[in-house]
Target: Cytochrome P450
Amino acid sequence: MDIAAAATVFTDPRAYADNERFHTATALLRRESPVHRVEHPRFNPFWAITKHEDVLAIARGSDIWLNAPRPALGPKAKDAERANIPIRSLVQMDAPDHPVYRHISADWFKPAGVRRLRDRIAELAKRYVDHMADLGGECDFFVDVAAHYPLYVILSLLGLPEDDFPRMLKLTQELFGAADEDLARSQDKQAQMAVLMDFFIYFQGLIQDRRENPTDDLGSVIANAMVHGEQMGELEAAGYYTLIATAGHDTTSSALAGGLHALLENPDQWGRLADDPALVAPGVDEMIRWVSPVKQFMRTATEDTVVRGVPIAAGESVLLSYPSANRDEDVFDNPNTFDVGRSPNRHVAFGFGAHYCLGTHLARLEGQALYAELVSRVRSIELAGTPEYTETLFVGGPKRLPIRYTMA
Model:
C-alpha cells in the first residue's frame, strides 16, 4: 500500500468496516505522512491528522481551531447544505455559545450525577444479560443487547416514553449509517436531511410538552433552559436533544459490541476479566480505545498555522483521526494488542479539550456494569458467525455480532 492509497481510508465508508485495512493504512501515514493533504473529487480538501500528539494539540487550541463551519467530514454537497440545516447542536458550536449551552446539562453527566444512576444502570445490565439467557445460548450481541441497553439508559434520562425507543434507534441508525446500505433510509441525497427533520418534528412535541408540564428529567431541563436571559430557542433545544439521544447511546453500543468482538478474538483477555473483576474498569477503557466509535471530527483554522512542520492556511480544515491516534506507537506500548489491563491508557476516543465528550463517565459506567454482569455469568462464549461492521464516515462499530454461549 502506498501513501496515496492509504489516504483513501478517510473518504471511503467501507474502510471503517475493515479494521485491518484502516489500521494498516493509518500506521503507514503516521510513519510517512502524519499530516497528509487529502484531495478527492467528492470532498472538499482537508488535512488528515493521524498522530496522538497533534490531535491533542489541535483539540486544545480552540481559539485557533473551530468546529464551524465543517464539524465533521462529509461530501461537498453536505458541506454546502450545512448552512441550511435548521438544527444546531453542541457539535456545531464554538465559543462563546458552546460553553454556555454545554453548561445546561453538564451537572447531569459529571461523576456525582452519574453515580446517582449506578443502581439503575446495574439493574438494566442485569436485565439485558437475563435477556441473553432467555435467548437460549445464541444471539446477535449487537442487535439483541448492545443496541438497546445504552439506548434505554439515555432515553430514560431524557424522559422519553419507552414506546418511542425503537423509533429513536431506527432514526439514529439512519443518521449515522447513511453510507451503509443496510442502515440508510435510502440512497437519496436528501435522505439524511429527512432524518434530521424527523428528529426535529419529534422533539418539537417534547419541547412543547415539557414547557407546559415540567418534570424532573433531563428533557425538561433542556426544554426550559435559559440562555442569555431568554428561553432556549426550539432549534437549539431540538439540536441538544438530537445529540444526546443519538451520540448518547450509539457510540456506547459500538464500544460494547466491538469490545466483545475483541475479547472473542483474544480469549485469554476474557479469561483475565473472569478471573479478576478489578480489570473490568480498565478493560472497558481498552474496548473504547480499540473501537474508537467516533471516527473523526474536523476543525478549521482561523489563522495561518503549522502542524508538525506542515503549513496550514487560514480557512483550511483538518480531520482528527481518533482511531489512528489511539494506535499511535509513540504513545501506546504494543498498540495493536488488545490488553484489558492496559495502564496508562491515554486514548482520545472521547475527544479532548473544550469539546470533550459530555457522556464520558456515563459510558464508562454502562460498560463496567454490563461486563461485570457478563463475566460473572457467562461460562463459555464464541463467535457463531462472521461479525459485520457499519460502513460509515463518522460513528460506527459492529452492526452484527453473532455469538454462541453458555451461562450459569
Q: What stands out?
A: Residues 282 and 343 are 8 Å apart (CA to CA). The longest helix spans residues 234-265. The mean pLDDT is 93. DSSP finds 17 helices and 14 strands in the chain.
